[in-house]
Design a protein that fits this description.
Blueprint: E1 10-17, H1 21-35, E2 39-46, H2 48-56, E3 62-66, E4 74-82, E5 85-89, E6 109-113, H3 118-128, E7 134-139, H4 142-150, E8 156-158, E9 173-177, E10 185-192, H5 199-213
Parallel strand pairs: 1-2, 1-3, 6-7
Antiparallel strand pairs: 3-10, 4-10, 5-8, 5-9
Pfam families: LysR_substrate (PF03466)
Family: Belongs to the LysR transcriptional regulatory family.
GO cellular component, one term: protein-DNA complex
């Protein structure tokens, strides 16, 4: 317990990569402010480049993002990692498989989550397996990608898995693990290396580490 007069208080500016935010930012805010009721959190979402710009410009104290192609002027605290999965239309022939080998996708149309660094990460997974992805559609929106897959217009590879395997329009989706050994998606907390961290920032970093220990990877 904190000694008298040492309560954490103030305002924290937290940014998050767009596809991470819905699953993790609300519970992080709820649990942290429950512990520290004198803290207010201002949140923002964006692309990785927008998060970098905001951190460098002092608009954000911290950013929750994927640890991919991180510039050297940031400190990075890894929090957890998730294995990417194959997203298929609900009645696709490959849904009969418990795990999908990447080679089975080589002739299938690919729906790309077209937002940095996701586009690089997902295409690298396929190219490392010797597959040149046949990009049929691309979108920076996770739910548009899921909707296109739900319509039977291709498969995708994703890390984020919203609760419930249906698109916004109600089409059934099938999630299958990748049979190959592939690079995991690492969620991390980033801060500008030259930033002088306040007690509030340090407390929130520690809270994130504790919080993600309870998240099933």
């Amino acid at each position: 317990m904190l000694a008298a007069g040492t309560a954490i208080e103030g305002q924290l500016s937290l940014a998050s990569f767009a596809t991470i935010a819905p699953s993790f930012v609300p519970p992080l805010i709820k649990t942290f402010t429950s512990l520290h009721p004198k803290v207010t959190i201002r949140m923002a979402e964006g692309t990785q480049d927008e998060l970098f710009k905001g951190l460098r410009g002092g608009d954000f104290d911290l950013a929750l993002l994927y640890d991919v192609d991180m510039p050297e002027d940031f400190t990075v605290t890894p929090l957890t990692s998730f294995a990417p999965h194959v997203l298929l239309p609900g009645k696709h022939r490959l849904t009969r498989l418990k795990n999908v080998p990447l080679v089975a996708l080589k002739d299938e149309p690919f729906v790309l989550l077209d937002i940095a660094p996701s586009r690089t990460y997902f295409t690298r997974i396929l190219e490392t397996a010797g597959i040149v992805p046949k990009v049929a559609f691309s979108s920076p929106s996770l739910e548009v990608v899921r909707g296109l897959v739900g319509q039977g217009l291709g498969y995708s590879i994703l890390v984020t898995r919203p609760y419930g395997d249906h698109s916004y329009a109600g089409e059934e989706l099938a999630v299958r693990p990748i049979a190959d050994e592939v690079e995991r998606g690492v969620i991390a907390l980033a801060a500008l290396r030259q930033m002088r961290k306040t007690r509030l920032v340090s407390a929130f970093e520690a809270h994130c580490v504790d919080f993600f220990r309870t998240v099933k990877a």
